[in-house]
Amino acid sequence: MREITNYTAAIPALGVGIGYRSELREGIFSNRDRIDFLEIITENYLSHPDAYRSLEELCDHFPVIPHGVDLSIGSMMQLETPYLKAIKRISDVTKAPYYSEHLCMTKTPGRYIGHLAPLWFSEELLQHVIRRVQMLQDYLEKPLILENVTYMLEIPSSPMSQTEFFQRLVEATDCGILLDVTNVFINAANHAFDARQFVAHMPLSHLVQVHLAGGYQRGGWYVDGHSELVPPNIFSLFEYLVSLCQVKSVIFEHDAHFPPITDLLQQMDQARAIVRRQQRNDMPNECVSS
């Protein structure tokens, strides 16, 4: 494989932050000195004027990264112009250095799926997603950062692995990677593959951001609930990632069963300490992908 030109290396490190949720608002604003940046769900701010004003207030106090959930970049249907204009407006207001989304589908012609569905990793779909990423990066005037998702059903007989799909997508578009470490751990547990091997085979030279969250087990399956604190085994996988490459930015996601803000801050401090400890070991500036 030819060497990947790495324009995402210029994206600044933001530190360790948290996904903004209204339930956490008081704790977030009371601890601004311990939270480096926020991530917001783009779709929460697209229509209502009060929500838009709330976003402007967040931007007055924190660096803010917009994180989309409904782009459906893997769908074959045409992207809707009003939606693109709306997410660009949010992207511009935040002045974020990048825009993040999921490598998945959320809709098909005439049907909304209702969750982040996995893709069939084929050559045809890869070329389709490459064209979309190139168009979106030109339209948004900033890099697009794509996240790996969890899945209950792995689409069989994919012509290529997910890591190869990410590698080739990055090589063709110079987009970035949002590596959800929790999603890797959950998929590995549910589908019996090596989580560390998956991490090592991702295009880590283009790693821009990391997600950490806690889930739960139900009926023998791990579920990405964003409802619990991050457990030690996921922190261990995160520490392995940090041993492989420079980790610039980390977001903790929590969407239900909200704990005291002190517990979340403690976990953020733990992640920050892991990153700083590795930085003291004089890691090179760029990651090495397998």
TrEMBL record:
InterPro entries: MbnB/TglH/ChrH, Xyl_isomerase-like_sf. It holds the Pfam family MbnB_TglH_ChrH. NCBIfam families: PRK05409.1 (NF003818). PANTHER family: UPF0276 PROTEIN HI_1600. This is UPF0276 protein. It comes from Ktedonobacter robiniae.
